[in-house]
TrEMBL record:
The keyword Cytoplasm applies. Its main location: cytoplasm. It is an enzyme of class 2 (transferase). GO terms for biological process: pyrimidine nucleotide metabolic process. InterPro entries: Cytidylate_kin, Cytidylate_kinase_dom, P-loop_NTPase. One of its GO terms (molecular function) is ATP binding. One of its GO terms (cellular component) is cytoplasm. Residues 4-202 form the Cytidylate kinase domain. Gene3D superfamilies: P-loop containing nucleotide triphosphate hydrolases. It is found in: Cytoplasm. This is Cytidylate kinase. Belongs to the cytidylate kinase family. Type 1 subfamily. It comes from Sphingobium wenxiniae (strain DSM 21828 / CGMCC 1.7748 / JZ-1). The gene is cmk.
Length: 210
């Protein structure tokens, strides 16, 4: 069984890298941010308060098809996800689902904020993907433009900074580089180069464990 943990801040490119690693190693992949986004969107739909733990907890029992809802991908829902994810009860409610995915026969790749620290601390390989705030905001900007939106760079930068601060400073499972993780800064890398480097880092970690 091979478990690969990919963590990092918003728009660092961790999902792109996790999916490429999944193709390369023939493993299933879980974007764990979607689980928190589903909770955030469910609270909103129920008219609850994302900062109120009981409202957020009630939303953890969402229906699986919600994970395919394109509305989950918006920056606004990303921000809601970040607010519900500070509650320890919400994190606890989502842990087993992620661990079950990680420990399926053959293993898996998971990307998120606490995969290498909390969900799979004994993962066979761990990567922490990052990029400068400006580069990450630029990626969100380009995505929004490509989808016909009218993005504002300053508000994207502010949203990403607010999300980084909340994710890194919360008491439970804060975003940080896990022990044994390799850092991959994608600020100046093309997608192809970032994927090549990620595969080289994972290969080296897997080789080191043999
Ligand atoms: N190295 C790169 N160079 C240029 N663009 C990139 C690079 N890596 C990812 N991107 C683009 O940046 C955007 C965000 O990437 P991605 O969704 O992989 O980030 P993420 O860290 O998973 O974000 P999220 O906060 O949604 O979890 C996507 O449009 C992706 O194609
Ligand atoms: N393992 C995780 C994954 C995500 N979160 C929180 O959800 C927010 C949205 O995540 P994206 O990866 O889809 O951007 C994120 O800002 C985190 O607050 C988490 O706590 N743990």
């Amino acid at each position: 069984m091979t478990i690969i943990a990919v963590d990092g801040p918003a728009a660092s490119g961790k999902g792109t890298i996790a999916r490429a690693l999944a193709r390369h190693y023939g493993l299933p992949c879980l974007d764990t941010g979607l689980l928190y986004r589903a909770v955030g969107l469910s609270v909103l739909k129920a008219g609850g308060d994302p900062d109120h733990e009981a409202d957020a907890l009630a939303a953890c029992d969402f229906d699986a098809p919600l994970l395919d809802d394109p509305a989950l991908r918006s920056e606004a829902v990303g921000s809601l996800a970040s607010r519900v994810s500070v509650h320890p009860g919400v994190r606890q409610a989502l842990v087993q689902r992620q661990r079950d995915f990680a420990t399926q026969p053959g293993g898996a790749i998971l990307d998120g904020r606490d995969i290498g620290t909390v969900i799979a601390p004994d993962a066979d390989a761990k990567i922490f993907v990052t990029a400068s705030v400006h580069v990450r905001a630029r990626r969100r900007y380009d995505d929004a433009l490509a989808h016909g939106g009218h993005p504002d760079m300053d508000s994207l930068i502010a949203d990403i900074q607010a999300r980084d601060t909340r994710d890194m400073s919360r008491d439970h499972a804060p975003l940080r580089m896990a022990d044994g993780a390799d850092l991959l800064d994608t600020s100046d890398l093309t997608i192809e180069a970032a994927i090549r480097q990620a595969i080289a880092l994972v290969d080296a970690q897997l080789e080191g464990r043999r």
